[in-house]
Design brief:
about 60 residues, mainly alpha, about 50% helix
């Protein structure tokens, strides 16, 4: 897990300096949430190409009839 300082440095490097300045704790909470989500996906060392391996259903576009 990344430290708070690593999260802030990454956010600032990504151009989120204003968000860090105004909502530091929210930026940290969002990063921790993303870490938890990624950990729940399991081992991602092998690319998964099957649509059933996605953590959410594939997008479907409605075609006007």
């Amino acid at each position: 897990m990344a430290t708070d300082n690593e999260i802030i440095a990454t956010a600032e490097a990504a151009g989120l300096g204003r968000a860090v300045a105004e909502c530091r704790e929210d930026v940290i909470a969002a990063a921790r949430s993303a870490e938890t989500f990624r950990a729940g996906l399991g081992d991602r060392s092998e690319p998964r190409v099957e649509p059933t391996s996605e953590p959410w259903p594939p997008m479907r576009v409605k075609v006007p009839s």
